[in-house]
Amino acid sequence: MLDEARSAVLPRRLNRSRSGFPSHPVLAIVMLGGLAIACAHGNYLYDQAAVNADRTIHVVIENPVGSNEKWEVRANGRLIREEKDDQPVSIPYLPWPANGGMIPRTLLSAELGGDGEPVDVLVLGPRISRGSVVRAHAIGLLRMVDRLERDDKVLAVVPGAPMSDVRDVAELEERYPGVREILAHWYRHSRPGGAVEVQGFGSRAAANQLIAECVAEFENAVKNQTMPEWTTR
């Protein structure tokens, strides 16, 4: 049925903008079996490398800045709106303070203390459309634990966009004071129940090390056919 939806409404590509953002798809949102699914060519989890030759990372944008919706790429590579008790999940707080996304072909596995999902990313700067795949520079980590599982967020900036000249979290604090506190505060309070513990920030080197470890975990899971399924928590 998904293939039928893809053939009915295909995304078109936008030209590269002067801001430096790469081309990205205009998505059609279709309802399949009660789920809202963003239709695009290919597979968001498998089709792009995690890290490029220029050491940028690929990021699939799931939740644009300013949105209250929650979408995620599932283990089948589809970008799907999260549901709970058959109802779409919305954030009962201020909207996303940055563009939330994931790094393809990564796995923050249980062996690393993680939640068994791809590495999450917060892309700082202007709004980026849901379903876009962008190149970004990792500049640091927001260290987090969610329900006793490691759930770190890589902080990143897109080349050519505002804030793109920031290269690490120390420089982020120096040039854009308060941004780190905004992100930490949002995660502490955006979900009722107090399950999230923010443990501070890590360096760019720590972010790149996490990405490398999670690329290796993904490849091992594919090789051993042990890729976990993940659903709304």
Write structural notes for this entry:
The protein has 233 residues and is α+β, with helices and mostly antiparallel strands. The protein contains four helices and 13 strands. Strand 4 and strand 5 form a beta hairpin. The longest helix has 21 residues. It starts with a helix and ends in a 9-residue tail after the last helix.
Helices and strands, with pairings:
Elements: H1 2-8, E1 28-32, E2 35-39, E3 57-63, E4 71-73, E5 79-81, E6 83-84, E7 87-88, E8 99-102, E9 120-123, E10 133-146, E11 149-150, E12 153-157, H2 169-175, H3 179-189, E13 196-202, H4 204-224
Parallel strand pairs: 9-12
Antiparallel strand pairs: 1-2, 2-5, 3-8, 3-10, 4-5, 6-7, 8-9, 10-11, 10-12, 10-13
CATH C-level class is Alpha Beta
Task: Kindly provide the radius of gyration, computed on alpha-carbon positions and rounded to a whole number of angstroms.
Answer: 17 Å
Secondary structure class reads alpha+beta
So what's the overall shape? globular
CATH superfamily: Inorganic pyrophosphatase
Biggest sheet record:
5 strands, mixed, barrel
Reported CATH architecture: Alpha-Beta Complex
Integer tally of domains: 1
CATH topology: Inorganic Pyrophosphatase
Based on DSSP secondary structure assignment, what is the total number of beta strands? 13
* Portion in beta strands: 25-35%
Strand order in the largest sheet: 3-8-9-12-10
Estimate the helix proportion, in percent: 10-25%
Tell me the distance between the termini: 26 Å
Arithmetic mean pLDDT: 84
Number of helices: 4
Low-confidence segments: 1-26, 28-37
- Helices and strands, in N-to-C order? HEEEEEEEEEEEEHHEH
